[in-house]
Amino acid sequence: MRLQHATWQEVEAYLAHSRGIIVPIGSTEQHGPNGLVGTDALCPESIAWALGEQHGVLVGPTQAIGMAQHHLAFPGTISLRPSTLVAVLRDTIESLARHGFTHVFFINGHGGNIATVKAAFAEVYSERSLRGSHSAESPLALGLFNWFMGRRGRELAAKLYADDEGYHATASEVSLAWYAAGTEKPVAMSPRVAPNGSAECDAETFRQRFPDGRMGSDPSLSSARHGERFLALGVEDAWEAYQAFLGDTPAG
Amino acid sequence: MRLQHATWQEVEAYLAHSRGIIVPIGSTEQHGPNGLVGTDALCPESIAWALGEQHGVLVGPTQAIGMAQHHLAFPGTISLRPSTLVAVLRDTIESLARHGFTHVFFINGHGGNIATVKAAFAEVYSERSLRGSHSAESPLALGLFNWFMGRRGRELAAKLYADDEGYHATASEVSLAWYAAGTEKPVAMSPRVAPNGSAECDAETFRQRFPDGRMGSDPSLSSARHGERFLALGVEDAWEAYQAFLGDTPAG
Amino acid sequence: MRLQHATWQEVEAYLAHSRGIIVPIGSTEQHGPNGLVGTDALCPESIAWALGEQHGVLVGPTQAIGMAQHHLAFPGTISLRPSTLVAVLRDTIESLARHGFTHVFFINGHGGNIATVKAAFAEVYSERSLRGSHSAESPLALGLFNWFMGRRGRELAAKLYADDEGYHATASEVSLAWYAAGTEKPVAMSPRVAPNGSAECDAETFRQRFPDGRMGSDPSLSSARHGERFLALGVEDAWEAYQAFLGDTPAG
Amino acid sequence: MRLQHATWQEVEAYLAHSRGIIVPIGSTEQHGPNGLVGTDALCPESIAWALGEQHGVLVGPTQAIGMAQHHLAFPGTISLRPSTLVAVLRDTIESLARHGFTHVFFINGHGGNIATVKAAFAEVYSERSLRGSHSAESPLALGLFNWFMGRRGRELAAKLYADDEGYHATASEVSLAWYAAGTEKPVAMSPRVAPNGSAECDAETFRQRFPDGRMGSDPSLSSARHGERFLALGVEDAWEAYQAFLGDTPAG
Amino acid sequence: MRLQHATWQEVEAYLAHSRGIIVPIGSTEQHGPNGLVGTDALCPESIAWALGEQHGVLVGPTQAIGMAQHHLAFPGTISLRPSTLVAVLRDTIESLARHGFTHVFFINGHGGNIATVKAAFAEVYSERSLRGSHSAESPLALGLFNWFMGRRGRELAAKLYADDEGYHATASEVSLAWYAAGTEKPVAMSPRVAPNGSAECDAETFRQRFPDGRMGSDPSLSSARHGERFLALGVEDAWEAYQAFLGDTPAG
Amino acid sequence: MRLQHATWQEVEAYLAHSRGIIVPIGSTEQHGPNGLVGTDALCPESIAWALGEQHGVLVGPTQAIGMAQHHLAFPGTISLRPSTLVAVLRDTIESLARHGFTHVFFINGHGGNIATVKAAFAEVYSERSLRGSHSAESPLALGLFNWFMGRRGRELAAKLYADDEGYHATASEVSLAWYAAGTEKPVAMSPRVAPNGSAECDAETFRQRFPDGRMGSDPSLSSARHGERFLALGVEDAWEAYQAFLGDTPAG
After folding, report:
1. What Pfam family is a match for this entry (chains A, B, C, D, E, F) (predicted)?
2. According to the CATH classification, is domain A3-247 in 3.40.50.10310?
């Protein structure tokens, strides 16, 4: 069930039997010559929506903009400062906790978000931990699942693309986003496989290192048909992780 | 053209002939017994997407969560503090300005966002205005269009619902969101028309005043078929406003 | 009763019979060739002081600096960033709520403050709304009255100045500020009526659009004698609004 | 010349011959049984206004609310958090520097403001100092003068009240504020001289230590006639300090 | 060379031949029954100091407090909120960059810091990336090395403790901190090996899961003599990483 | 007892008989041609450690970086913005209060920290004072002792150096830091005694005024042997102040 398509009374009914919710989080950033700017949001969103439908889990609105400062030298990239993204996630989590959700599970599509999402979790926990046992608050567990690290998806990528999968604008994520968006954008790559290196730098440095935006990948191997398979496996990976997460019992 | 579905090179090509972009902004909040939680995001998003397609305007990712603190006593509502939303909009605008966009036009679906969006514009302008003429920055114009105030849409609502249109969970927005989401949720209303009053209060007070979440409306009059008509008129209203906005020339 | 002139024991006695307080808020910004930089603070302050005396309402210290970034290209303008003004209003309101005030009523003299003041109210309410029903806090109602939108004052301005009243450095506010400050500064206007346009822009753009600072007005029509009449009507308008506001009952 | 009563063109003319401005800063806080809540703002404001008139110095709007957290257990006190006051002073100073003011001189009426004002100065300087010599900014000197520490005023207080002057709600400041407000509020004190102790504590502790709000003072000795003398000496003290401050030459 | 023990002229001389500096960062948090509260700071600090001496690298002051919210239910733990630690690292890095340092290398002793340190790096880069190519700033590379993940140290821990090394209050870090502090605190462990689980939770939950503070470790195996060996290997690991980092060339 | 060298169980035992803790705070900034960059941290740290050992007081980790913006034109200086240092101290104090510490005593080595530390105390108190008597929090007293203002130390400095002690890079602090660091750095001074003036300015202005970083001092008179004597007297001064501070009883 998508929160955006539910009424508040349907949410109330959902809360009577489950305290868990899934929130997709991505990024709006360049993904090389043939990848969509929205790739990192489209991938976790499509997985979350399919999972929500198959398993009756509530899915919140996608956080489509993430921490993408290193991609800002490419047109179309939008980035939140880490401090801004921490505030967004804090308010989102506090709103959900206010309604009685105890397990908030983020499905993430962007490696560059991981540190900031974890810092945001720690910011939320800090308020509770500093207050100590005087706190009257209900328990809260926060989970982060990076779909691109799921076992099943990794195995398929290895089988389809071997070393040409790469690290940014990967063949797998370009495929899944194409499938989710119902499009394909065939572009010839030059060089076929992009250079590798560290993405932990500012935007000018990043563009110097990775002139067309790709990192170590050959996404000319991508196809929407592949994307369909990544979606199915992504749902299995995420569902497994979500079920384990629900078993995580915070102090109350 | 949706930014999420474009490559960075397509954005680069777009910038060669236009410096304007449209960003939908909404809210994730209760909309009464039959309205969708995502109503305020779905409405401007569907208008922006249709406008973008018809007129070749680039449309950024939807800011689905807005300032909805007064709705927090109803399950499903997610709200950003005004200070958080200001930071989000500042980072979004600064990212776009970095690429050379000079006209950023927000299509808004939520009355409760207006004050904070305007404060965010002033926050962005403040940095430039405090620096004075030493600033090397390019000109920047920020626009806000509230679709629910568009002339054509207002006229249709008056014709279809007269005084039962109301102020929150209105018959028109419920219709448009149903059409956008491809759903209808018929629910009997009691009382048929909801009470009126001020929404400028905290969440507990709001719920006391408006027990089922509606303000002055009878959205049992809504239908997806109506929504289709509101979409068409919303695009006309927004396109007219966007064209006027592009004529707004900031100092450079 | 002016808070600045009261002892704390007088405030304590006041609180025994009333939980309402009035706070004037203005701006320190250019007001054209003959208008005072303090116009937007002097107007609501003089109204609040007169109202306080006539009706025994406590009046807090004037917030003389507001959000005036668009006027910063004219010497003498002082502006708070929206985020700063939100913090000031939050601390002011929290201090008053701490003493048991439940109704804080701002009389405002500056259109450019409206969005930020409303965002500040929402910021204060957000804290309460996010805490939910666990909150032990007392009820709180926040009101904003823009004196320049009062019915009686509008009618007098229409009668005296018709279309030459304008939108900034208006004939009416220049008159009232002159009366409040006990001064008149006759200056010939050229052009007689200033150009119109949007003030939602940065400071350089504003000065380009409005070279002498006025927007659509001819304040050479102003006089302190007019100001005296605007003061009397402003008090009537504000008193009516304040009484209605006291009837606004938040949840407790 | 009071900025509030000037036009922007008068400010422009002033800047042609002087780059200095005076800003009064006070507090809104209890001042014992017979002292005005606005004492700490009224004192520096009346000194600044008189100085401005006598010596042709521009005087900005009074910052009437300061850092008064320790007085919050007494009704009527309004306090800004230090972080808020730092932001207010930063924006005020940056606005003035934007117009070309190089010397901003605060006349302060509240001991509890000193640390925060100095922290605010350091916050403003930090931005410049971190940017280093690449900075294109004009020089900036920030001054703080505490009127209650002026030599001439101290001597008169010692002569009139000896040890009964005290540390808060002092006989001298109550006198000056009475004179400035045109009022006298005779109240019998019990004990005649208030207890002494540290004010660096929270509000509950402060009220426990100083039950009627006074610290070490007997303000029943105060009179408006005394206040008139403190005003004259305060102007002399402040003028001497301001002239010395203008000789302070920052790097440009 | 330790910065704390250098004069500014010695730093100036150092900058003439090297633009790199090492900053130890740790945490002040419980480390089980026999581990020191300062373990996470003592470990990277002792490695940095020894490396600095052996290889002539400048070592800045240790950031002894980190992000340790999950340990706050144990007395002695001090934690910075992530947002605070981000600000500290931003100011530290900006200060160093001001002097011409282009490579700032953090040696970290606490897993819980990693996300926040990376978010802080991104916060610093964001300012530069948002400004774009107009920026006049010098290049900047930021590095993070977690001593406890160094290859040589890992191998020794595996050899000495096998699976009893654990994840918090590990046998290796307790040994190194003992050696650095010149102390040993033999305490019997019960159970001998602590339970395992996730540390991503609030403080109350953490203490419930890990009653004596250890995670999966048996630090009764620790000894200062082991610590001496971990120090030597830690220096080798860090030196290798630092040299690689200096080869990282940001855009200038 | 140093917190860094204690286990959490030792801290727990300490809390059973004392609720006070000492935290050294300094700065990382130039101290003239022969003074150590870490002088302001080394001095209070060595005093705190010796005091802690002699009197069994718990000593927290040293805050080695302070507010030193005015020294940033000299290589090696690291400065926190006042707003950052306020956040650091707030989190440190809240962490300690969480464990039941009621008296937190900072021994400070840097005059430039005083305003910001006091602002930080006020920031912490503000949260409590704004909440009012509804607050369930335990009492909290915050103390600041500037070792360089201790009576015994002042007397020795006057005897050894008379007027050549100076105001920054003083002969006494250089001596104590040399003793603490086990080093001496003899450098000839020219001029022998540095110029005097105000340090309340930005970094460029400071360096113009004080070309080698000293203010009014002749630290060529310094010696580690002197430092040993300043340490002993500093411990006596601080111990006296700490005992008085423990007698300070906040409301509970």
Report:
1. Creatininase
2. yes
